[in-house]
Amino acid sequence: MKELQKRIAPVLCTVLLCIGALGMNASAASLVVIDLADIVDQTLPSVVEVFTETKQVSGWYGEYVTEGAGSGVILTADGYIVTNRHVIDGASTVKVRLNSGQTYAAQLAGSDIKTDLAVLKIDAAGLTPAELADSSQARAGDFVIAVGNPLGELGGTVTEGIISAKDREITIDGQTMTLLQTSAAVNPGNSGGGLFNLDGELVGVVNAKSSGSDIEGLAFAVPANTVREITQELIQHGYVTGRPQLGISAAQLTRPGAAAYFDQPGIYVISSAADNGLKSGDRIIDIDGTPIAGTADITAVLDRHSVGDQVKITVFRSGREAVVTVRLTEQKSV
To answer: Which pTM was predicted?
Structure first.
């Protein structure tokens, strides 16, 4: 009996909170439950499961394939789907399974590392796209549900929570993002899934969870307004136009490496466009006077500039410092 009371108590508390917030009497409590079920029915057809296969090469095992899974949200009736870039990054094949159980091969239409968003395209028609909310109108405390594919094998799972905070600046893999924070339970596999409000509108795309033995109820989502802007660019162009880049690939070294020119921790140029003056092995010290300690610092500097701008980069090269002027070009790939 005590165990039953423990199970009932949270449900009663949730219903009473809803009644108190809406000024409803006890007889209206069942309407809240029915409405929530209707919202789930409305949103489930718009959320898909995403499955990936990635070819790997090992000196011990030769070529082998690893599998991954995530979630996605349907954007258009003719098969454009948004997910997270990290869900499909490096994948050789991508498949999408609809809520109906139908499975389709998917092609990558475009992706954006800065917002961790990607758009897939499947050859389908008559799909149920999600309606995107104006996420600027969302408030901390708003009730939300998360729909996704936790653990990569529980597609169509629904969890509930609130928007815990707006405009959280979170740095993930060197990219600083402005995200919604939610208390809705998410797990690996939820990435790319939908966060919906009580109108059944997509308020965000789930993309990260803080993990740890003492951390629960701390997850994040890309706001719907960002999703709308970025996915339109990816569908039309395959990349986000107007983004400046240095024209280099770089790596962050946290401790001295084996190569002689990797003499201390820092950001090192691995490869560079032939005409920008930077060379492989250069350690970037600062850009326009801003010290560079990590890739997030480079991103922050570029965010203040436009394509065509020139920046002065101080590098350590061949035992001494040098200053290189680089003209920023448009980033057309991820």
So the answer is: 0.79
